[in-house]
Design brief:
single chain; six-stranded parallel beta sheet; 13 strands; 44% helix
Amino acid sequence: MVQIIDRLNVGGPTPYLLFLTRALASRGYRSTVVKGQVAPGEAEMDDVIRRSGIQPLEMRGFSRAIVPIRDIRVLVALYRLLRRVRPDIVHTHKSKAGVVGRIAAWLAGVPVTLHTYHGLVFKGYFSAWKTGLIVLVERLLARRTDVLVAVSDRQRDELLADRIAAPSRIRTVPLGVDLEPFLNRRRGEAGFREELGFGASTRLVGIVARLVPIKGVDVFLSAAEQVAEAMPDVRFVVIGDGELRAELEFAARETRLGDRVRFTGFRSDMARIYGSLDLSVLSSRHEGLPVALLESVACGCYVVATRVGGVPDLLRSERIGLMVAPGDHKALAAGIQRVLRERREISAEVRREVVESYGMTRLAEDFSRLYRKLSENKRAGGASPGDCWEGKYA
């Protein structure tokens, strides 16, 4: 099997792919992971790559950016690789890899091809005409793809609403993450607060996100300013990096937040950080199902999140978190204040339920069953993709 991804940058798809590949190896699937290169200003998740034990094959010139001549060279190189390896399955991840990887798999005659949408690029990223072009390309590629994988039921609904493919070709396989390191983490640790220059008893609200427009960190900062006015003892931290960092830091300095907010850049000690937060916030304008929320909940850190993508699938009750409308900083501020006043936490029982539902073991079992059924159906004469699924998810 060959797994293809445009880059192993900081973000949810990287640990998802690497730890899934490792888990599948114990179930008899031998995989080659093909990756591209991170863009200037991005960072690879070196610690995650190292911990996974996977050695990806890097393809020169393969990146997120659209550069037609270079992309054609990548397509040819992928085609040659697939002709040499002759995998039974090609599984692509994220938009760029989904385009060149699926075309290469079709040209190379790979028996089974899947693509996972980790987030949707149809909304919030591009102008109307570019979005329309992307939707058209996705519809054409879907005809050469055995199964399209959504990470949540709501994401599947969005794919169906955009008529990307027939319902029989779109399957929900909920996100899976290596959550065990977060499950038994002790709550209330003071070390991270003190590292930031805050007192050990300071109440700390954090957001973990790439600093790009779609994540709505500007909305978080506006909400934080409102919370700080009502609750002067609360402090804030932004964990992550990206193209908007300088702009967001400047905006924070120009508000009444003053020295109440810190920007840390990317961090690898996330279990320690979640264990130190009183509340974790998601302010995204669009999402698939963010890994940051899963890790936060597994650590027992309550969340306030925008009602986007697969978030409602996770936050099914207020035992786990509160939801507010995207883009509404006043509603986000009200939710943060409510949770801090009520001092909400997530019980050990709920934490365990989330780990069982969204852990790597379940994810590997789902994909192992799906791969096997697709391969069996192809050998039997190419039965409909709708006949291949016997799992829980429709």
